[in-house]
Amino acid sequence: MTKKLWLMVMRCLVLGAFAATSACAYEHNADIQKVDGQWDFIWGDLPYDEARQQWVVEQENWRPTEHPEGPEGRQGEHILWLRWTPPDGAWRDPHVYITSIDLTAQVFIDHQMIYHFGYISNDGNSEFAGWPWHLIALPSDYSQKFIYFRVFSDYPYIGLAGDILIGNQSELLSRVYRLGFSGVLIVFAIVLVALICMALGLLKRMRAVAMATGTFSLNL
């Protein structure tokens, strides 16, 4: 199995585990707000102002999208720019939680980088750095300002995946910890079922059925 295929399988397991436990952990917490349908995007890198050492984000070709993962019209691009205006709230310590980023990213507000995952060069090169969850601290004066995401991926998936939430750091971390233990159990159960299916099928000399059943289990 190729490296990219292994990574795609692992991605399915990670996101599947978080999705399966998300509803239980969320508990309709009034201090946590889910982000839906409030994004703009541009495919390809934006111009970079060498004199000011900053990206020129003031462009006219921003397009709306409801999903910050893989909006239409990619056409082989490895860089995706996203922007979003966080809602106002009475949060003491506002943070943004993202289940996963495909694959690496830089986050800006007022032309200042406030978060990065992995390294992306100015000419748009980067490498896979894992699929952890992300917690991004917002400045106290974030209200009514765009947050910009510069995302790199040379894989089929690109963008922000899973849940995107905004709230106090403590409430978001509490949610992550509740997800963690149950998520590990779900991943273990799925992998165990897949291995058992493949082993039983091979013992019965039904290799094709075994591999198909095991692969299906891994992708649940």
Q: Mind explaining what this structure looks like?
A:
This protein is α+β, with helices and mostly antiparallel strands and 220 residues long. It has a domain at 33-178: Jelly Rolls (Sandwich). The protein has three helices and twelve strands. It has helices spanning 3-26, 169-203, 207-218; strands spanning 32-34, 39-43, 48-49, 54-55, 63-65, 79-84, 94-102, 104-109, 112-117, 134-137, 147-152, 159-168. The protein has a six-stranded antiparallel sheet, with no helix packed on it. It has a four-stranded antiparallel sheet with strand order 1-12-7-10. A two-stranded antiparallel ribbon has the order 3-4. Strand 8 (104-109) and strand 9 form a beta hairpin. Helix 1 (3-26) packs across helix 2 (169-203). It is globular. The relative contact order is 0.20. The model is unreliable at 208-220 (pLDDT under 50).
| End-to-end CA span | 19 Å
Segments where pLDDT lies below 50 for 5+ residues?
Answer: 208-220
What's the CATH H-level superfamily name of one domain? Galactose-binding domain-like
Residues in β-strands, percent: 25-35%
Mean pLDDT: 81
The name of the CATH topology of one domain is Jelly Rolls
Largest sheet: 6 strands, antiparallel
Number of helices: 3
SSE class: alpha+beta
The helix/strand series, from N terminus to C terminus, equals: HEEEEEEEEEEEEHH
Cα-based radius of gyration, to the nearest Å: 20 Å
Q: Helix fraction?
A: 25-40%
Query: Total number of β-strand segments?
Result: 12
CATH class of one domain: Mainly Beta
